[in-house]
Model the fold of this input.
Amino acid sequence: MKINIDGKTSDFKAVWYEEPVIKMIDQRILPESFKIVDIRNTKELYDAIKDMTVRGAPSIGAAAAYGVAQARALGKDIEEAGKLIKSARPTAYDLFFAVDFVLQHKEEASRYAEKYVDSIVERSRLIGVNGNELIGNSKKILTHCNAGALASVDYGTALSPIRKAKESGKNPFVWVDETRPRLQGARLTAWELVQEGIEHKVIADNAAGFLMYRGQVDLAIVGADRITKNGDFANKIGTYEKAVLAKENGVSFYVAAPLSTFDFSIENGRDIPIEVRSEEEVKDIKGMAISPRESHAYNPAFDVTPNRYVTAYITEYGVYKSSELQKLKGKGKESIIEQIGNI
Ligand code: MRU
Done:
């Protein structure tokens, strides 16, 4: 992704590897500050995933792939490292997919981690190519959370078709849900759209229904953290209600994700493990209390949207309805890299 810092444009990925150091953009402090964090061992990586220095399913997977390679480069027990990395967050399937993939190629862990991440970048780019075909000129698109380049190493998943639309001369406009409590929309998606010169407005999370009712949303595109066999999917808390509102108002609702987010071992969304994060994320904003000290909060980080609300899934292989997802099943993790040339 192109990033303008103090008037100078540079090319960055959300996460990369300079053996034995994993480098990542600190996503906790954007848009106020742009800082690169160095990750020097498995415990630091565990903390970085848990505290969301790196976040977004495919970027978490990329960091995890590098984490296995790093453990090997440091002469550590890589099975143990893999276990610790996997325990950092429970919902994004990419985390498990990536660790298992590199562990399967442990003799050449660095080379395979790098190939894995290259493949994720290419898959994200292809999601953009395929999704762009669904976007006409001057469309108003709603998105939730951040499923951009920050979340997917480069290009993004939900934002990739929007970037491609802009690149191909269309004029997309994006409604950006602020995405309480961590504000990934207001902070990160808006920041990426500013960098890309894509027109947008940030809206309070509870404004989307009204905009749909008024006919101001042409389509919605979101990312996913885990998609099950039947197409139910977990994504950032608040996604479910947007999907229901979209159906109620006749707005097409797309889910954009690479194969690494599909968990075909789970039949439906009821079995997706959902992360519950700290009360403070809800009760405080930037260290300032917004609720009485005596009040407790409940903070599920994701929700589950049943497949009936999804118009289609935008993948690197094409656009599929939930009834067609079985076609993706054959494209297993063993061949995730080799396949890239055959997509
Ligand atoms: O808690 P986060 O910020 O990691 O949650 C991220 C999301 O829910 C994204 O929409 C999802 O990971 C897709 S990212 C391409």
Observations:
- The longest strand covers residues 21-25.
- The pocket of MRU is lined by residues 55-58, 92, 145, 147, 151-152, 157, 184, 223-225, 235-236, 301 (CB under 6 Å).
- The radius of gyration is 19 Å.
